[in-house]
Amino acid sequence: MTMTQPVTVKNQKEIVIDNIDRQILNLLIANARDSTRTIVKKLADLGTNMSERGIGKRIARLEKLNVIHGYTTMVDLNQVNMPILRLVTVKFTSPKDFVTRVESMKEYLTNAPYCDFSARTNGNIDWIELKFFNNHQQAQQEEDLYRAWFGDIIEDYRSYDLDIHKMGWQLFDENDFDRFIQSTCKKEGMETCPNVKKNKSMGK
């Protein structure tokens, strides 16, 4: 299983993504099987009126520009017998063959069917991973083997089983972010957001 890849726009001058594009992309991220007719109805509920042909042309453009890399399917992990989600953090040590050994670890994680995400990080840890397993015994077996195979470059290894509250993401811009923060501050009390309140006053 692979999580949806975030959109990367390399050249903002050549590729312009407007609010309608983001709305369409968010609908496709939520359900890639939505037809253009369904998207027309959902956009209308959001206050955007477009024809099926117009939406089809926008989707085709986003595909051509490689903003849309592909389409994926979200599944119920319990029903496909993959209920164990494990977060792994690694801090490296530095043997002489460190670069070669890290490349070996990257190759392992790239090929491992249970590794959904891995990335180099900055700060107190050097690497982070998300892995899915069928059961705890399987997860422990993989952890033992992983630490045996790559223990020579691992100074500190920690793993955490996660109880998933939310999985998924959506596109947003600065205005979307500001609106959400403002509405949450209003709901929770502006005294909890002094910086937001100050910035809002300065903008008047």
What does this protein look like?
This protein has 204 residues and is of the alpha+beta class. It has two domains: 1-74, Winged helix-like DNA-binding domain superfamily/Winged helix DNA-binding domain (Arc Repressor Mutant, subunit A); 84-162, Lrp/AsnC effector binding domain/regulation of amino acid metabolism (RAM) domain (Alpha-Beta Plaits). 43% of the residues lie in helices and 15% in strands. The protein is extended and about 60 Å long. The relative contact order is 0.13.
Shape: extended
Q: Report the order of strands and helices.
A: HHHEHEEHEHH
CATH T-level fold name of the largest domain: Alpha-Beta Plaits
Strand order of the largest sheet: 2-3-1-4
Brief summary:
The protein has 204 residues and is of the alpha+beta class. The protein is built from seven helices and four strands, in the order αααβαββαβαα.
Give the topology:
Blueprint lengths: L18 H12 L5 H10 L6 H13 L19 E9 L5 H14 L3 E6 L6 E7 L2 H15 L3 E9 L11 H15 L5 H9 L2
Antiparallel strand pairs: 1-3, 1-4, 2-3
Helix pairs in contact: 2-3
Question: What attributes does this structure have?
Answer:
204 residues; Alpha-Beta Plaits; four-stranded antiparallel sheet; disordered N terminus
